[in-house]
Write a structure and sequence with these properties.
Elements lengths: L2 E4 L2 E4 L3 H20 L4 H18 L4 H35 L1 H12 L5 H16 L2 H19 L3 H18 L4 H9 L4 H31 L4 H14 L8 H11 L4 H19 L4 H10 L8 H7 L8 H20 L1 H11 L4 H19 L1 H18 L4 H13 L9 H10 L12 H16 L21
Helix pairs in contact: 1-2, 1-16, 2-15, 3-12, 3-13, 3-15, 4-6, 4-10, 5-6, 5-7, 5-9, 6-7, 7-9, 8-9, 8-18, 8-19, 9-19, 9-21, 11-12, 15-20, 16-17, 16-18, 17-18, 17-19, 17-21, 18-19
């Protein structure tokens, strides 16, 4: 009694209480170690050992644990390659003058008072067009955060605005894999899902824009104009600056809009960077390969310029790749053990009112995002809650929107998530937890979603046509 056989191996039954234990203990260990100063990679490794021990205690044999961890590594293989390519591209775009050109013109054009709103709006526009937060962060985000360092605006503040803007597209762009997965998992037409998300996205966007504008006006009062001029002058004397240097960025963005695979897109960006560095900056081919491996380095005679441009490279991403692999293995164990499925299934059975069901789906999505990332935060709650939504006369578009407003959007707040750590590496090499207090979309959107759920705003019945109303009238 109390045990079942899977593939002829005795495995203890995964109850709701055991699932809670298996979920929260490894995460608690990870978070506590990070808080006490442990490196994220080591904290993740300890959490992985804790989860492996839990699986062994549940009767799972080591061969199955090993297979689950291998599957987790397989799932993050694409992400690790993207990280490495981005590191290479940042280095060669520095060497080619592409990023320095964007920094130079940006400091001349952008008004300091409106800098933070620009940091929010531009990545939002690009991510909606391309469907990828990472693509926006690793291109225009790098430029904007570089400008922040030169203009005296706190880098974490700028990074928070950039990440918030980039996640606008991650949440609601028709080209976003998260949007496509949400529509597919909940079995909702894609553009019905997009229309439904406007109810929470528009007010969240406006609130964020107002907050960043207010912060921008306050932060701009501390800008040293002399230092900005010195920095732009140092850029001009160190690099060949011209509008032609922007072409590699434009090409990468066009390829992203056309949904060309990231491997090819960033590969083209790196190739163009090498060509531009050789033509416009007079650098040798082998020299460029050295920058791609070890990061760009120059002694310009202006300390601010050197601090800003000396970074990137394949090697700069290796520690992050190690973290991704470990977290991928941990995610594989969470999925294989059944912890996540049992948790969400148990929670769904305890909720009986329409509003509590949608709220429970949002809470489940956040829990899944904490443990496994954005994709499990959509897929698992969708499977657990969509039939209950049918029974309670709730349109599945409401469920899909809540999953996007919670598990997808809160990802940047999960500072032990490998992708989130990567944002800090790419945007300036700082601990990403410093940007969390300024990543307002990740905090505002879930709150708006919960309030609207409580008020019944954007709440559609099962067979009701989903339309966007600027002034909402509650359904009869």
């Amino acid at each position: 009694m109390g045990e079942k056989t899977v593939n002829e191996k005795p495995v203890r039954e995964m109850t709701f209480r055991k699932a809670l234990l298996g979920f929260f203990v490894p995460l608690a260990v990870l978070i506590v170690l990070i808080i006490f100063g442990a490196d994220v990679s080591i904290a993740s490794l300890v959490a992985l050992f804790v989860m492996a021990i839990f699986c062994l205690l549940m009767g799972v044999k080591w061969a199955d644990i090993d297979a689950a961890m291998a599957e987790g590594v397989h799932q993050v293989a694409g992400a690790t390659m993207v990280m490495l390519l981005v590191g290479c591209m940042v280095a060669i775009w520095m060497a080619s003058g592409t990023i320095p050109t964007m920094l130079y013109y940006g400091m001349k054009i952008v008004s300091p008072q409106f800098y933070l709103p620009v940091c929010f709006i531009l990545p939002a526009f690009m991510s909606v067009c391309t469907g990828t937060s990472w693509g926006s962060i690793s291109t225009i985000g790098v430029v904007l955060c570089g400008m922040a360092a030169g203009m005296g605006i706190p880098l974490p503040m700028a990074a928070g605005a950039v990440i918030s803007g980039a996640f606008v597209g991650d949440k609601c762009s028709p080209l976003s894999d998260c949007t496509l997965l949400g529509a597919s998992a909940c079995e909702v037409p894609l553009f019905t899902h997009v229309k439904s998300m406007l109810y929470t996205m528009i007010p969240s966007f406006i609130i964020c824009l107002v907050v960043y504008t207010i912060l921008g006006f306050n932060a701009s009062g501390n800008i040293d104009v002399t230092a900005v001029n010195e920095l732009s002058g140092g850029m001009a004397s160190t690099f060949s600056i011209s509008v032609f240097h922007i072409i590699p960025i434009i090409v990468v963005l066009v390829l992203s809009v056309k949904q060309v695979p990231a491997f090819i897109t960033f590969g083209v960006g790196i190739a163009l960077g090498i060509i531009w560095a050789m033509i416009f900056q007079g650098r040798g081919f082998i020299e460029c390969l050295g920058y791609i491996m070890s990061g760009f380095s120059v002694d310009s005679g202006v300390e601010a310029v050197d601090t800003l441009v000396n970074r990137g490279g394949f090697s700069s991403m290796l520690s992050l790749v190690g973290t991704i692999i470990i977290i991928g293995m941990l995610s594989g164990l969470f999925n294989k053990s059944g912890v996540l499925t049992v948790l969400v299934g148990g929670l769904s059975k305890k909720l009986r009112s329409p509003k509590s069901i949608i709220l429970g789906a949002g809470i489940s999505s956040i829990l899944m995002s904490m443990a496994g990332g954005q994709y499990p935060s959509i897929a698992i709650p969708a499977v657990a809650f969509k039939d209950i939504c049918d029974e309670m006369d709730i349109n599945r578009a409401v469920l899909a929107r809540m999953l996007a407003d919670t598990g997808v959007v809160v990802a940047p707040l999960i500072f032990w998530n490998a992708w989130t750590i990567g944002y800090g590496v790419v945007l300036g090499g700082f601990p990403i937890i410093q940007a969390v207090p300024y990543t307002f979309l990740a905090m505002i959107c879930p709150v708006v979603a919960i309030i609207f759920n409580f008020l019944g705003i954007g709440f559609f019945h099962k067979d009701e046509e989903v339309k966007y109303h600027l002034i909402w009238k509650k359904s009869k």
